[in-house]
Amino acid sequence: MLVEFRVANFRSFKDEVVLSRVASPDSERAETLLPIPGDPSLKLLPIAAIFGGNASGKSNLIRALAFMRTYVLQSTRERLTPQERAREPFRLDATAAAQPSQFEVTVVVGDSRHRYGFALDEQGVADEWLFVRKKRETRMFERTRGEPVKCGDTWRGERERMVARTRGDALLLTVASEAGQGEAAGLVGWMHPLLVLRFVALTLEAIGRRRSGQLLFTTHTSEVFGPKIRSGDVALRRDELWLTEKKNNARSELFALWQVKGVRKTEDMRTRYLRGSYGGVPRLVPVPGLAVP
């Protein structure tokens, strides 16, 4: 299960943005929250709905997840296509191309929490790291270009051989997974069913029965803000509603409605969203000569 996703310097996201699936203290629909093994103080949200105007960054967040997944699964191929290798840094800042693009996920695999990420630049992998937490977070490995790879004591297997096999544009995680290293193989295995949009076919009812599974989607359908119109409708919690906003400098920002000051769950959030009170709404520009009935 996804706990958190971070991305920086990818397409319209110049600065780091964080998509967190950790539930806020809001008590609404608490029965749908998912437990985190080994940490009873935290619960995970089954749904995150991402709103925003056209070209505000909604699709780019999904693309960032998809790019990370593809790179993890295919980085050891002898030849990656330009599309598979392209990291697409932020284009509207002349310095961004020289800076790495960074991706990090925190996920629950079995009874452990894995925090894994990497940074790519034009030369390949600049940094890569994997930490695993059961009772406390421990290092599996840290890798920085030009420096010896730091491996934790818990990483079992032929570490030197795996490190030696890892090309400059490949990921040590992929190599370790292919060699059958347990923690690495488990994390890469989690990436396989991700497919980024496996979501839509799931429902809260099914998630509640299984006590697992999550849904992540982008939409313009504002009805999920509530209020419920028909019996059986679901209005999302404030920490499940995420907004993207593109600022004047063309940088995308990502934030949860829960983070917007003064938003009460008793207010008409759909109406306020459509009026632009929270941001993340499409910007409509009048078209000269277009007759509106």
Descriptive overview:
Helix content is 20%, strand content 26%. The protein is an alpha+beta fold. It has one domain. It has a seven-stranded antiparallel beta sheet with strand order 2-1-6-7-8-9-10. Strands 11-5-12-13 form a four-stranded mixed beta sheet, covered by helices on one side. Strands 3-4 form a two-stranded antiparallel sheet. A hairpin with a 3-residue loop joins strand 8 and strand 9 (137-144).
Q: What form results from the Cα inertia axes?
A: globular
H/E element string?
A: EEEEEHHEEEEEHHHHEEEH
Number of domains: 1
The neighbouring-strand order within the major sheet is: 2-1-6-7-8-9-10
Radius of gyration: 21 Å
The gist of it:
The protein has 293 residues and is α+β, with helices and mostly antiparallel strands. The chain contains 7 helices and 13 strands.
Please give the structural blueprint:
Layout: E1 2-8, E2 17-20, E3 34-35, E4 43-44, E5 47-52, H1 58-74, H2 82-85, E6 101-109, E7 112-121, E8 124-133, E9 137-144, E10 150-151, H3 159-165, H4 172-178, H5 182-191, H6 204-210, E11 215-218, E12 241-246, E13 252-256, H7 269-274
Parallel strand pairs: 5-11, 5-12
Antiparallel strand pairs: 1-2, 1-6, 3-4, 6-7, 7-8, 8-9, 9-10, 12-13
List the defining traits of the structure above.
13 strands; 293 residues; 7-stranded antiparallel β-sheet; globular; 4-stranded mixed β-sheet; alpha+beta; 7 helices
